[in-house]
TrEMBL record:
This is NADH-quinone oxidoreductase subunit L. It comes from Mucilaginibacter lutimaris. Residues 67-117 form the NADH-Ubiquinone oxidoreductase (complex I) chain 5 N-terminal domain. InterPro entries: NADHpl_OxRdtase_5_subgr, ND/Mrp_TM, NU5C-like, Proton_antipo_N. Keywords: Membrane, Transmembrane, Transmembrane helix. PANTHER family: NADH-UBIQUINONE OXIDOREDUCTASE CHAIN 5.
């Protein structure tokens, strides 16, 4: 497989080129087949690579060419496939293929079908580049590439000004984080003289002992992760990314772009393990983000907005896991989240498709008998994200909460309360959408229908994965063997030696599990009593809400706050620089030189009279002036 690894990212790139050039000439069937098939082949190669790593236990590094060489400083364009990246390859290509397949049906009537598939293929290429790079520079290329593609995909329907603004917002906020990441890379080069993982990670402990600024390096890298993975305060772009088509929401929010920050920290785990202060910051930011986003999700009425804030909250859980040293648990949640969140977004797309484009849950209801496959599959995803056993989310979330408890009781309490909020708002979404009476129009009710097979098959596959994926991480107290933990052990071995193991007694683990499950079930029951038994429907935007509900519904006015304290002052400064510095200063000076020359030439022009006597007189005056100057100089 070593000689074929380079094909994994190249195949989606080929799909981008073919579909991009042939978007106006190839049929939609050919475009959809090419775009999906090439990602499927990449998935097949990823599976083969995974089993090679699993059987041999030896990472594979493929050096394609020496990219940058300045003296003794070299940056190769190389790929590193180990236990961590091999799983990411499976997630990106596997879930990516299902999203491509789903998009064939979802985007079939869109005029930009070919362009859309070209962008999807390019996105997959850059995401693969990000996880396969053997150094921070190749990773950064993929990092910036997925940022570009997210801009193109979020703003795909750019004729709508609000959608175009959402794309620009995502692009700008990601650039803020990317600056931190870039500065972190510069500091790594200054400290270690290299960007290669193989040159940095083994020498990190000695460098820290020698006084390397490891806390500053890791904080800068974390700033990059905050932007890409939508953590406080750079999280507001992610909910607005709902402006893109639903398959884009699934691709960005589920398994790919938003998990890039998690992957980068997991890849750099030895650096962060040596910086305990940074890890504490990561845990606090992650926990705050998880709780804050969950509070906002409680009152949202747009089905995709609920899922968007859910993603922000779940990413916060992953950062909490990273911050308390549960690297395996955090990555386990990346894996399970990829399945159930992709399922939920694609399921939401199926609901929107059935509702003729309607996204407001207040205008839905009673759909479980109309679109049964969508209902059943979304129910599986909801149970999984709520953390109810034996579905996948229970095992990964429980591992993070257990590690949080071992680190800090406060972290655990906030985390388990947030888990209860997650269960409430997710079942609220299900009850408002699928239970009760239909609240839409007669025309919408008349057109209600299940999505075509190319949309429901990915839902079924993802539902199965959401149900059983947790089996690879069954804890020992439940009679299981943590297969994922054993597989990833070589990647996190050095960090575990530094951080040590936080063992909990079996009784404590059972109590923690029981507590989280009980809270999730109680929250589910409360949501049922309110939205099914009580038939409560959220009020319209014109009606008054209680103060706290109003704060949650308006996202605590964070966007308005940013607009007031950041955008408007920057706009005022830019207007000042334009009108005063640019127009009056620079333009005034440059234009003044031109006007001065013009007016002077007009005056001098009057001396050219054409009179020979005047010219002789001026010559004499000139000679006298030269003589006087010569005498004065002597």
């Amino acid at each position: 497989m070593d000689n074929l690894i380079w094909l994994i990212p190249v195949l989606p790139l080929a799909g981008f080129v073919i579909n991009g050039l042939g978007r106006n000439t190839l049929s939609k069937g050919i475009i959809g087949t090419i775009g999906s098939l090439l990602v499927l082949v990449a998935f097949g190669l990823s599976v083969a690579t995974f089993f090679q790593i699993k059987n041999s236990g030896v990472p594979v590094e493929v050096n394609l060419f020496d990219w940058i060489a300045v003296g003794s400083f070299h940056i190769p364009f190389a790929f590193l496939i180990d236990q961590l990246s091999s799983i990411m390859l499976l997630i990106i290509t596997g879930v990516g293929f299902l999203i491509h397949l789903y998009s064939i049906g979802y985007m079939h009537d869109d005029a930009g079908f070919g362009k859309f598939f070209a962008y999807l293929n390019l996105f997959v290429f850059f995401m693969l580049l990000l996880v396969m790079g053997s150094n921070y520079v190749v990773m950064f290329i993929g990092w910036e590439g997925v940022g570009l593609c997210s801009y193109l995909l979020i703003g795909f329907w750019y004729t709508n000004p609000s959608y175009a603004d959402a794309a620009k917002k995502a692009f700008v906020m990601n650039r803020i984080g990317d600056l931190g990441f870039l500065l972190g890379i510069f500091l790594l080069v200054n400290t270690f003289g290299s960007t290669n993982f193989a040159d940095i990670f083994p020498h990190a402990p000695a460098a820290v002992t020698a006084g390397a600024p490891i806390v500053l390096i890791t904080l800068l890298l974390f700033v990059g992760a905050v932007g890409k993975s939508a953590q406080l305060p750079l999280f507001t772009w992610l909910p607005d990314a709902m402006a893109g088509p639903t398959p884009v929401s699934a691709l960005i929010h589920a398994a790919t772009m938003v998990t890039a920050g998690i992957y980068m920290i997991a890849r750099s785990n030895i650096l962060f393990s040596l910086a305990q202060d940074t890890m504490e910051v990561i845990a606090i930011v992650g926990l705050a983000t998880a709780a804050f986003a969950a509070l906002i999700a409680l009152t949202q009425t747009d089905i995709k907005k609920v899922l968007a804030y859910s993603t922000v909250s779940q990413l916060g859980y992953m950062f909490l896991g990273l911050g308390v040293g549960a690297y395996t648990g955090a990555f386990f949640h990346v894996l399970t989240h990829a399945f159930f969140k992709a399922l939920l977004f694609l399921g939401a797309g199926s609901v929107i498709h059935a509702m003729s484009g309607e996204q407001d849950m207040r205008k839905m209801g009673g759909l479980k008998g109309k679109i049964r496959v969508t209902f059943i599959t979304m129910l599986v995803g909801t149970i999984a994200i709520a953390g109810i056993p034996p579905f996948s989310g229970f095992f990964s979330k429980d591992e993070i909460l257990a590690a949080a408890f071992a680190h800090s009781t406060t972290f655990y309490v906030v985390g388990v309360i947030t888990a209860g909020l997650t269960s409430f708002y997710m079942f609220r979404m299900m009850y408002l959408t699928f239970w009760g009476k239909f609240r839409g129009t007669h025309e919408q009710e008349h057109h209600l229908h299940e999505s075509p097979a190319n949309m429901t098959i990915p839902l079924i596959v993802l539902a199965i994965l959401s149900a059983v994926a947790g089996m690879i991480g069954v804890p020992a107290i439940m009679g299981g063997h943590h297969e994922l933990g054993a597989y990833l052990a070589p990647v996190f071995e050095a960090s575990h030696k530094i951080l040590g193991e936080h063992e909990l007694s079996h009784n404590t683990e059972w109590i923690l599990m029981g507590t989280s499950v009980l809270i999730a079930i109680l929250a589910m029951g409360y949501a049922y009593s309110k939205y099914v038994s009580g038939a409560h429907v959220s009020v319209s935007d014109a009606e008054e809400r209680p103060a706290l509900a109003n704060l949650s519904y308006h996202k605590f006015y964070i966007d308005e706050l940013y607009d007031k304290i950041i955008r408007k002052p920057l706009d005022a400064i830019s207007v000042f620089f334009y009108k005063v510095v640019e127009v009056l200063g620079i333009d005034g000076f440059v234009n003044g030189l031109g006007k001065g020359t013009l007016e002077t030439s007009k005056g001098l022009r009057l001396l050219q009279t054409g009179n020979v006597g005047f010219y002789i007189f001026m010559m004499v005056v000139g000679i006298i002036a030269i003589l006087v100057y010569s005498l004065i100089k002597i």
